[in-house]
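Q: What does the predicted 3D structure of NmrA-like domain-containing protein look like?
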Amino acid sequence: MTSTEKKIVAVVGSTGIQGGSVVKTLLADGTFAVRALTRDVNKAQDLKALGAEVVAADAEDVDSLKKAFRGAWGVFAVTDFWSLYAVHKGNQREAQAHEEQHGRNLVDAAEAEGVQHFVWSTLPHVEPYLVSQYEGKVAVDGYLRSKQVPFSLILTSFYYSNLITHGFIRKDGDEFVVELPIPSTSKIASYDAGETGTWVLLALKSKPTGKTYSAYGESLTAQEHADTLSRISGKTVRVTEVSPEIFDTKAGEDEWWLKATMKSFHDGLYVQDYRKSREENPNAKTFEEFARNDAGLKALMGY
């Protein structure tokens, strides 16, 4: 690489919400050349049009990852628990183990190709619940620390967009109902996943010291979600209350991932540092800023 050439950053999951944000943020900034990785290059033609190099790679195939990482200075890596949850027909433990293997494959490929900065999207370890969609990533954190790969971590939060994508808001006649399965006074650490690239860019421009960056906007209760949406839309938005007694009952295996996730918030185990996040990204969106412009919420609620 000559002094005038840009360092290449390979972005895993480039057609997903986190990876797509990283690609677009890096391209807009212009410091790095961007290599967008995807299993199906036909789905990433919009990223190619923006200026990214589009390359086929699959987390199942270490050789494909090595090829995709070859010549890259940096990597942004993320794994997708939910696609594997579907593959394993709702078996959380199998999906967790599979996700962990994907993460190990990414680390191994980066180490083999001499990647100089590996930025890994992760989630917290929350004893005693051991949430499946967290723990695969947590295991990769430990694996990464055991390898000779310079790295940074991006600790992500609950997506604001989960309200739509997971069906936590619905229409009920002329009204709308927020149905987050958690007592309405419990706060959920959240952010706009479409801003992930801001934290990744900051990490890539900093030394890879193993630092954890906090991708976080704000913490809201179910009632605060409803009040915000009512204020924006002018519609009546109410909350389905979950009593502590119901919340504390044992969930079935097929429901445990959701209850465990919510318990990690309710018990104060999944927290983010507001001051630290704002130092890293002073313009991180609040839920209200996100909701005012989110196409999914606007289409559902008609505002």
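A (community wiki): The structure tokens above were generated from the sequence. The first helix runs from residue 17 to 29. The mean pLDDT is 94.
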